[in-house]
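Hi all, long-time lurker, first post. I run a small reading group and we've been trying to get comfortable going from sequence to structure in the token notation. Rather than ask abstract questions, I figured I'd post a concrete chain and ask someone more experienced to write out its structure so we can walk through it together at our next meeting. Sequence below, copied exactly:
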Amino acid sequence: MAYKRILLKLSGEALMGKEGYGIDPGTMHEVAEEIKAVSQTGVALAIVVGGGNIFRGMRAEQQGIDRATGDYMGMMATVMNCLALQGNLERLGLPTRVQSALEAAAVAEPYVRRKALSHLEKGRIVIFAGGTGNPFFTTDTAAALRAVEIGADVIFKATRVKGVYDKDPELHGDAVFFPEISYMEVLSRNLKVMDATAISLCMENRLPIVVFNLREKGSMRRAALGESVGTIVRG
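-- Answer (accepted) --
Happy to help. Here is the structure in token form:
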């Protein structure tokens, strides 16, 4: 095994499929199947899910909502996505727990680091909802923070493209692909891998990031087994 413990970062947009909003059931099922394939390798797996398919706090001010309130709304959206993912994983026979940094006692455990570690040690998949529990921080930062807290060996960042490019390959046919890139180059080039706070936290803790195409079947499992998949970001 290349890794013993992985933190998977899923964007909310990854769950939309071809829909313009919300959760596409077919896409969610495919994502759950990919996660199952990784889980079957024996790796301990935790997941952070974004909420951009439902609401983005950064757009709140355009709708007459202050940014802090908008961010809390976005955190609530992540809880919805995490519950949907949990349901799909449990239908595949995978034991899961949802822990939320935003209090949602009726549907999720509160985030407690030691409890999360206990779940992972017992072979359960832990899904972290509610971001960091604070406004003005993205779920990218939440992913980096949780990864460090649980002692993950790597962050897997699932995207819609092969990996990291010098510009958006969906908009630019001449975009250059990077099979490997440093944290500092990501920051200096302002590449949209994760936000600057998340990248800095990973750099400080020497936590590598593997960026790969979620839509490429089997890519997540191959990355978990140490095969060269997508882009690796490290020092």
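A couple of things your group might point at:
The mean pLDDT is 94.
Helices lie at 25-39, 67-91, 113-121, 139-149, 183-189, 196-204, 219-224.
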